[in-house]
Amino acid sequence: MLDSTCIQVPNPAESTDNPSAPVITGNVFNAMATYIQHASPGERAALARLNPDQVLRPHEIAALARALLAAGLQPDTWRPATWQRWALIAHGMALAGHDGAGRLGWQLAQAGVAESRVTKLLTARGDAFTQLLPRVLRLLASKSVRPNWHELGSLVLKESSTEREAAQQAENIRLRITGAYFSAQSQDKKAL
User: Fold this and answer.
1) 55-59: long-range contacts at Cβ-Cβ below 8 A with a sequence spacing of 24 or more?
2) How large is the average pLDDT for residues 18-34?
3) In this structure, what DSSP letter does residue 77 have?
4) Domain boundaries in the chain?
């Protein structure tokens, strides 16, 4: 099981170009989720409605910036791609919440997400991943299952990285999610 205090996520402020960029711990996901959970209904709605693939509207940028700052991030020097990744994370948290205690693979199985959908999500890269993730998150939310953003957020930040180490870490995250999902599926079949 992942320890939320030990997950090291390279600063998404393009760490490939800045090897001395500060390191963010997994607690940033807890802080962002807490902020979003306690935000005003309008703020949560702005985050839930934003489309990370499109240009963000002023009220969406404001809501996202407040969530990022509340999480202890400093987005003032980020590139658009970094904003997009964090927009996807904030959007997902606004849609489905956060449960850092469970394994994401188990959560997907608990929500009854079909094997084909999990496989499609975990094999998708780039734009395909960005488009599939909100659909899976809506499905989780409809089943009242909150995902583990320590795993999922790290995957979003590392997914499609051109840096070899980050790409390998993304693959490791995918394998952990897959392993937990199929383990949960196997246990469900044994219980029948």
Assistant:
1) 56/83, 56/87
2) 67
3) G
4) 8-191
